[in-house]
């Protein structure tokens, strides 16, 4: 299982651990991932996703999972989240036509 948020694509970052004597050694900063169950109003069911705590706040701020996915760009979503986005657009009856630049 990858250490990447399914909604915001946040992943591990690299940096240095700096000792008292200023010796730098490589380390990884991992995202704060949580297994969360969201309620989708359009689909009428619960959806389990592995998302960062930042994404949980963003979903809440945007008014729920459906509104967040409709606003989200397709290139940052995981394949599962992209399938959810397509299903929500189909249920809403307003599929957004997104033309991808070549």
* Biggest sheet architecture: 2 strands, antiparallel
Give the percentage of residues in beta strands. Answer: 25-35%
CATH first level: which class? Mainly Beta
DSSP helical segment count: 3
Query: What is the general shape?
Result: elongated
Q: Helix fraction?
A: 25-40%
Within CATH, the superfamily carries the name Ribosomal protein L28/L24
The CATH architecture assignment turns out to be Roll
Number of DSSP strands? 4
Q: Over the alpha carbons, how many angstroms does the gyration radius reach?
A: 17 Å
Strand order of the largest sheet: 1-2
**SSE string:** EEEEHHH
Supply database-style keywords:
two-stranded antiparallel sheet, single chain, Ribosomal Protein L24e, Chain: T, alpha+beta, 102 residues, disordered C terminus
Give an account of the 3D structure.
The protein has 102 residues and is α+β, with helices and mostly antiparallel strands. The protein has one domain (13-92): Ribosomal protein L28/L24 (Ribosomal Protein L24e, Chain: T), CATH 2.30.170. 29% of the residues lie in helices and 27% in strands. It is built from three helices and four strands, in the order E-E-E-E-H-H-H. The protein has a two-stranded antiparallel sheet. A two-stranded antiparallel ribbon has the order 3-4. A hairpin with a 5-residue loop joins strand 1 (13-18) and strand 2 (24-29).
């Amino acid at each position: 299982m990858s250490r990447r948020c399914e909604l915001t694509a946040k992943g591990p970052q690299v940096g240095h651990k700096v000792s008292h004597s200023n010796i730098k050694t490589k380390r990884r900063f991992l995202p704060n991932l949580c297994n969360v169950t969201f309620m989708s109003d359009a689909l009428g069911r619960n959806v389990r996703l592995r998302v960062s705590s930042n994404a949980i706040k963003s979903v809440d701020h945007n008014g729920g999972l459906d509104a967040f996915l409709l606003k989200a760009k397709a290139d940052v979503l995981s394949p599962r989240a992209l399938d959810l986005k397509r299903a929500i657009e189909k249920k809403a009856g307003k599929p957004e036509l997104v033309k991808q630049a070549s």
